[in-house]
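Researcher: Following up on the earlier apo prediction. This time include the ligand. It's glutathione, with the SMILES given after the sequence.
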Amino acid sequence: MASVTLLTVWASPFSMRAKLALLLKGIEHEDLPQDLGNKSKLLLESNPVHKKIPVLIHKGKPVPESVIIVQYIDEVWPETSPLLPQDAFLRAKHRFWTDFIDKKIFDSLARFMRSSDGGAAVNEEFIQNCMLLEGALAELGSEEDGPFFGGASMSFLDVMLAPYSVLIPGVEQVMGLKPASPEQCPRLHKLFGAVAEHPSAKAALPQIEKLKEFIQARFARK
Ligand SMILES: N[C@@H](CCC(=O)N[C@@H](CS)C(=O)NCC(=O)O)C(=O)O
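Model: Understood. Below is the ligand-bound prediction.
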């Protein structure tokens, strides 16, 4: 096994985060794609509590949970592309909004995907959550500094959010999600545009067309 190995599923937004952090920092690694319908002994032993991907295995030691993995990567390889801010208060902000993405953005999107009534109410909730994130972009940095939470370069919070740049259009085009408009969330749209152009993100995130096929097969309403 390579010194750095990632147990992954390509369509998982959580896997995408870990992959993106490794690529941003130029860390040589091996991907071990997992079948969640038939979990490998390695996955069960590496993440016995949650039995979920992603898991980063570094020198034989397993680190589960995408948020913890990306923080671990940033601590172990701090020199290239530092992700978390130096300032403790800003670090707290990045962690707060990461928690918001996982608890509110992901949750409202997942509920939309599972909804049996067309999902209009939960779609509105999703848009309101995106507008709160838009407020965080304005609060944490000026547009002149660059498109990302980290200004000109991707930061921790950008890595946490980047998978949504493919997930949202995928769910929009397959399941009819109405995303927040460029008028409602101008900075968020610019951020997603910049993610789409970023070389590491291009390599870490799947093509929207491929993701659409996955969403269609797994989640589309019959
Ligand atoms: N909080 C976890 C979530 C990971 C997660 O939900 N992984 C899903 C795939 S997207 C999984 O492994 N599911 C397998 C299962 O629930 O049995 C993280 O951030 O890494």
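Model: The domain at 88-219 is CATH 1.20.1050.10 (Glutathione S-transferase Yfyf (Class Pi); Chain A, domain 2).
Researcher: Noted. I'll compare it with the apo version next.
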